[in-house]
Amino acid sequence: MAKKTYDLLFKLLLIGDSGVGKTCILFRFSDDAFTSTFISTIGIDFKIKTVELRGKKIKLQIWDTAGQERFHTITTSYYRGAMGIMLVYDITNEKSFENIVKWLRNIDEHANEDVEKMILGNKCDMTDKRVVSRERGEAIAREHGIRFMETSAKSNINIDRAFCELAEAILDKTSGKEVNENLERVVVHRQGQEKAPAYSRCCS
Amino acid sequence: MNNGTVENTPTFIFQIVQEKFLPGETVKAVLHAYQRIGVETSNRILALVATQDSYAVFSFALACDKPRTFSDLVVDNIFPIDKGFRMESEVRNTISVLGFSLSSSQSARKSTFYPSHPDDADEYTSFKLLVDDIFDYKVRTADTYPQAIVPPPFDDDESGTGGGTTTDESGFFGSEKEFSWLARYRREDDLLAIDRCIADGSKPLLKGESKFQYELKKHEHEYIINKTYRIYCATWNVNGQQCNATNLRPWLAASEDPPDIYAIAFQELDLSPKAITLSESRPDRSVIHNIMKSLHEGAQYEELCSVRLVGMMLTIVVKRSIRPNITRCEKQSVGTGALNLMGNKGGVGVSLTLNEDSLCFVNSHLAAHVSEVQRRNEDFNEINRRLLFSTQDISNHDHIFWIGDLNYRLNMTSDEITDYRVMLKFDQLNIERAAHRVFENYYEGEITFQPTYKYDPGTDNWDSSEKHRQPAWCDRILWRGDKIKQIVYRNVMKIQLSDHKPVYATFLADIKTKDEQKYKRVHEKILKRVDKYENDNQPQITVEKTDLDFEEIKFNEEYFRDFTVANNCHLPVEFSFKEKTETDMRICEDWISIDPCYGTLITGRSLSIRVKIHIKSETVWRVIKKQGNHIGKIPLDILVLHVKNGRDIFITVMGEYKPSCFGLPVETLCCLDKPIVDMQWSELTEIQMKSTTEPFKITMPREIFLLIDYLYRVGMQEINLFQLERSFKVNDNINEIRDWLDSCGAAEEFPGTPHTAAEALLMLLESSGNPLIHPLDLNVLNPDYPFELCLRAIHKLSTPRKNVFLYLTMFLHEFIEQNRNANIEVIAKLFGMILIRSSHDIHGLQRKNFIKRFLSRGIFNFARNEFKYS
Ligand SMILES: Nc1nc2c(ncn2[C@@H]2O[C@H](COP(=O)(O)OP(=O)(O)OP(=O)(O)O)[C@@H](O)[C@H]2O)c(=O)[nH]1
Ligand SMILES: [Mg+2]
Where is the signal peptide (chain A) (predicted)? Predict the structure, then answer.
């Protein structure tokens, strides 16, 4: 009679150049904390976080990958099995933005075909150091038909929302029966990221 | 239930429990028990601990099935023996204890335990006796010497619940000061308590799911509140009369407020032998119809369920508005008539879950006749034993209402006495209960009404038949549970259909109810904690370094680097080096080896792992490819150190492979204009690219020339020079030859012997990425292929390859001619394997025969000088 605690388990992956803030994003999401010292990830780490979406308890298993160049070939082998991928760049680092295309290619080559993707422009708190405009981020996301958000792990901007939105997109996909009802919304999501209200009730 | 509790000797357990405590805190008794947590059971050790002036019962959770040290015991709960302390048994029969509960003023909740060895009554009994003695003693001394009174810190949710404990503060013993020593053992959060048995792997970590259930249960008091429900119990023995037309309102609608739940019991609905033999179990709809018409008019009701056995019927009716709160309802019946089988006597019961509490209603009709007291007691036990619901028996319910014609009479012969209060002293049920022979732990309200039996039907007159039965309170209503308060308990004289008068009682019951808002908060909090628990309980390994710097690496040399991995987390760690991709199943490059490449580390242990590099002829070309045109150190390989259920750590193998003639294509060797030692990889790759277009500087590699030349000069008579069995692998001598060749050491003395020179030659030939005869025209392997054409095929190879091949075979021909020990078969086979390394599955014999055709013919008219190094 005991209810199951978890209705679903989603595996998510964080990728992007070294130093863009992947680990900080995960740390903010799982522990609600931030440190400014940079310890580059040398390997693959994961954390658990349970969220409730549409009355379902969803356990997110989030994998944080090493962004350093030399690990790229190795990290791609972790793409398989991921149901959602967060592709992170740093709005103060032009190179990390340019590499988005390269990361997208990596996803195409190595991830499941139906993986849900989302691009995050991180460190949006550092307005004075910004080199990649929000418009450019939106443009590249639109071009590839991917969700986009600017985030800050430091100031806790959009972190919860980003994960919940990605999880919700996966939920839409997995709950096949409800598709008809949700189809419209999925399409709407693809327009960009100005439709916040639909997500206001998750992960508060 | 898991009965495999502690098998260690009692004294041993006593000892380790004692070790939990400070001097002056003495363990007086120990009891093995378990608790039910959700659907699981969890073992406990209870300990009665004494200090100079206070006592407490500790409940320890066990970190493993067989605790070995005190650290395997985790304090789960503490029950100070204060005034609010209770240890109450639920006895099934006089011998075995079903369960018992502990509570105290300072523990907000009552906890239920079950002895682990219910059949071994001794442990339980002596523990209980001791606890009772202490409690009695404390009560007595508290009365005599009142102490400073500090009110106990009652939990908000717990106060004001009726029944059981009183909050009377006068003469209270057990001040906070007296129990201050307990603070040391109270742990707010033992969630992450380091558990030695988890650490050494003998106990698995709780998985998220069960951890969640466990925590939810543990924090129940934070979101469970009591909600009061009105319960109306009614019983009537109709003596076989049709009662579907009788006005039941005086009996069922007698309360002021509308009840939430009705439990309406009938006996002797049908006395016909047919009903008895067929064990009639269909509820009497006409009676139920009549019931539904006769209920309190202040609310809407619906029948929840009815259960019938012959004459007994129990109908549960609930207020429509609370129907959704009832999440479970089951019914059951037991016959205790003739042969303990017939349904003319026995019981019917309904078990239901209302909010978070379970309720049980039993309607029983026990054995008749004044003399059958014993039999009635037995019927009661029999019903308790056999009336079982899917997951529980009667006694497991939070609230129990037992109603019916219990048939207990008066132990009185004369009918002189008419004062009911006096008559009640002779009531068999009261006597039996006082003697603990039946209805143990049940309560009954005070009887203030006249006996319910036996009347002349249609009147209020006592039985006037010749049997002239003694009046008695046959029809009774009892309850069990601390949170029940009786409001009224009456009979209904007005209803005269039967020889029994109906009886009813109304109650207020506090039902555990989830406060949805609080629950949501606790639920969220626990989800977070469980996530944290899972994250914090990820097995982790600490590595000394993630870069292994091998610096300069030379061909055919062995290097190793050691690094330590340690387990500093509180879980056992299983590690292994992981295959890199689904397609590449290797854990590292062929020229790297890892030892050990998997293992298990318990907490606090560390281990040294050795990574070895040895670049041999077969693999050197791959290293060269990897080194590419990079100057200096590069990441040669990345090892993935995987921790089971945990993270992966990347370990980078750094190093610089130093250029050497080994592994380079012969074309490249023919384009060099300075010693290899002086060259960079950038230059070498450039040369390699150009070597396809530019003319060769020399006709054949000088390294090969030098080796053959040396052998020709000093090794022609050497025994076993070329053997299939090759013993030189890592040999300083060969590495000296390597350095001699790479540094263009022609000027210096050759550092080796004919044997090492021969081995160096073989290694040189086999170390190139492609074999010497490449590309290969497969026709040449056909034994019938004309030798002319074979020779032509050789001439089609690049000039360096052709020259090396002809020079080599010429030398070998010469060697076989001159050396009496030389075996052409062996030599042909050996060189066949090295020179023709096609990926096609070419039979070794064909390769050997091809070489042999060249070695056996003295057809080389060209002079040695033709290939002279210039
Ligand atoms: N101002 C600001 N700094 C951030 C933010 N997120 C991360 N940082 C900083 O950026 C640096 C790198 O963050 P990490 O999260 O370790 O980077 P990473 O993407 O995990 O890098 P790799 O592990 O090497 O792949 C750290 O010094 C962080 O403090 C942010 O939102 N705002
Ligand atoms: Mg990182």
Answer: none
